[in-house]
Write a structure and sequence with these properties.
Blueprint: E1 2-8, E2 12-21, E3 27-32, E4 35-36, E5 42-44, E6 49-51, E7 55-56, E8 59-64, E9 72-75, E10 80-86, H1 99-109, H2 113-127, E11 143-149, E12 154-160, E13 163-169, E14 172-176, H3 191-196, H4 199-206, H5 214-221, E15 256-266, E16 272-275, E17 287-289, H6 310-321, H7 325-329, H8 333-345, H9 350-370, H10 379-392, H11 399-403
Antiparallel strand pairs: 1-2, 1-14, 2-15, 3-8, 4-7, 5-6, 8-9, 9-10, 10-11, 11-12, 12-13, 15-16, 16-17
Helix pairs in contact: 1-2, 6-9
Amino acid sequence: MCDTLVMVAPDRVLFAKNSDRNPNEAQVLDWQPRREHPAGARLRCTWIEVDQVAATHAVLLSRPFWMWGAEMGANEHGVVVGNEAVFTDQPYADVGLTGMDLVRLALERGDSASAAVDVLTSMLFRHGQGGGCGHEDRSFTYHNSFLVADPLEAYVVETAGRLWAVERVTSGVRSISNGLTIAGFSGHRARVPTYFAQSRARRAITGSCAATSPRDLMAVLRHHGARGPAPRFAPVMGAKAAPCMHAGGGIKATSQTTGSWVAELRRDGPHHHWATATSAPCTSLFKPVRVDEPLALGPDPTDRYDPDTLWWRHEVLHRAVSADPARLTAVFAAERDGIEARWLADPPTPAEAFAEAERATARWIEAVLAADGPDRRPRWARRYWDIRDTRAGMPGGTAAARIA
């Protein structure tokens, strides 16, 4: 599950996305330079090969570690794209391009939002969408909707099999949250899985936000719903009714926010991007990143705990805070917000920001572990995370061991 939204203003476009996937499905920031390709070259996507084009744009992607495609990203021309799973009345193909493949293809080949939409729809028409999209369950598949934006405008692209509809957004806020929304096309919605996706509840939050700045969008992505500052778990749905999604519950509650992104695309430039590169935005810092400034962030993560990777180092904090989010987030939230406010007012280099974020995260882990207390999650949520911690090999004596 995911939430993606844009705000189109006269002088800029704001974009934000939470990527919600399985809890151990680490996400990596992936810089790919501009490239030229020989005639007749072929490109291997996640499950199928397609024809390569003569040249591809430089991109920065937030990508699940095992996929070729990406959940969200930006290119050198100020185009951003994010996708959402949607459930429709059209057949699901065993093989094809995944929605994440289509995100990356649109960014690598489209130099404007409208051109990226053309890439999405033409590739969908030629190759279809399909194939396994889940990490824990590779047979899990879905259709996709997309938000595509540049500094001038945005587009919603909704699909059902090889069918699609496009809506241009020229002003105001527009959001998508795992449900078909375009008038005349939403009739392709599959009602039961769309209900279990809790798309309506989350769109009520993201679609009504009065975002005027990147900081507003960061707050929306951290939103835990109307019931309070902490996620609320239900036996079947878990905490899926809010943009900041926390896994834990029955078979319908396996989605966790594993990466987040905010962009500000100015008509006169420059463009700004902030990515967590870690899970749970409520426990993360949105760090400035640039398409043209790759960072050495260590080895790419997998689905196993690895303290040498950024994503898994942060998981120690995230999983400790999950035991009692309302109390333990308060240990560091003021400092988190203060750091981001300072970065927004006077942006550091990406390298400086990531280094400061590492130091802050280490302090917060120490402070949270010192704030001992009971695990306040329901029994089913604790059990769910105990299984995921074991699968990931979270080390004994860490926060994960304590909350299991």
